[in-house]
Design goal:
The protein is α+β, with helices and mostly antiparallel strands. 35% of the residues lie in helices and 21% in strands. It contains 6 helices and 6 strands, in the order βαββββαααααβ. A hairpin with a 4-residue loop joins strand 2 and strand 3.
């Protein structure tokens, strides 16, 4: 499986400028990809399975290989985690994340799970050691992924 990070250009999206300002990265979403059959596992309001590839210019994707995580495990985790949701209160608390970190606190959530948290949990269950002490943003998880793999495969889509 590959861990995919979706980036947006700050010049094209205000949300990308805000993400870059708060996290130091333009990565705003992540999921797990099985390129052999075109499947993308991610977390939106619910864990889900979608067709891959699904992101087009001006967005770009960076992929990192994590071979110990299998498609069968992802299918099993998806079934198990299908009742986890991510609601409006979770989005609000995640938006306040920088303020929590300014005062040395961990980010709270309302019981939901964000995309990077789902990916980190699934990778941990496959034997990897992603950052789990705080709710990781996609930027946090990508920084960890960069340290774990020697060659990311970047697929850049330019408009």
């Amino acid at each position: 499986m590959k861990l995919a990070f979706i980036h947006a250009k700050p010049a094209d999206k205000i949300s990308a400028r805000l993400t870059l300002w708060f996290t130091g990265s333009t990565a705003y979403h992540c999921g797990l990809v099985d390129e052999s059959d075109g499947t993308f596992f991610d977390m939106s309001l619910l864990p889900r399975k979608l067709h891959w590839p699904r992101y087009h210019p001006p967005k770009w994707v960076v992929l990192y290989d994590f071979p110990a995580l299998t498609r069968a495990q992802c299918e099993e985790f998806l079934k198990r985690d299908s009742t986890i949701t991510y609601g409006w209160l979770d989005y609000l608390l995640f938006g306040l994340r920088p303020l929590y970190h300014l005062v040395g606190k961990s980010t709270r959530n309302a019981g939901g799970m964000i995309c990077s948290e789902l990916c980190a949990n699934w990778l941990a269950e496959a034997g990897y050691s992603p950052p789990l002490q705080l709710v990781p943003s996609p930027a946090d998880l990508e920084r960890w992924a960069q340290q774990q793999t020697t060659e990311p495969r970047e697929r850049i889509h330019d408009a």
